[in-house]
Amino acid sequence: MSITLEKFAAESILFDLDCTDNLAADETIIGSPVMTYFPVLTGADALTFGAPVINTALIRYPDGKLGKVGGVVQVRISGGTPSNTTTPRLYSVLATFTTSTGNTFVARMKLSILSNQ
Question: Within the chain, which residues score under 50 in pLDDT?
Fold first, then answer.
């Protein structure tokens, strides 16, 4: 479960971690995923997460893929800084969650932070 996305440092964006393909047909995400990231940085370099939620409706993505009900972690991410004005900084964002069948998964996305300039 790994994807790569981008955002500018000043943006606050709702991201989806679609786990549909990793879940059995009758399996859904339950509870509240725990969000973490690395490298762990502080101050302006730190990422900030809103409260993650699990989708309650089918999601149709622009590429035609479907995110099944209970199969997508949605979380707002803000903060972070690029390495410098020309080099993005790459973070790994992790969502650890339990499923209705008792499995524990870690979904990962790579998030590249771009300069606002």
Answer: 1
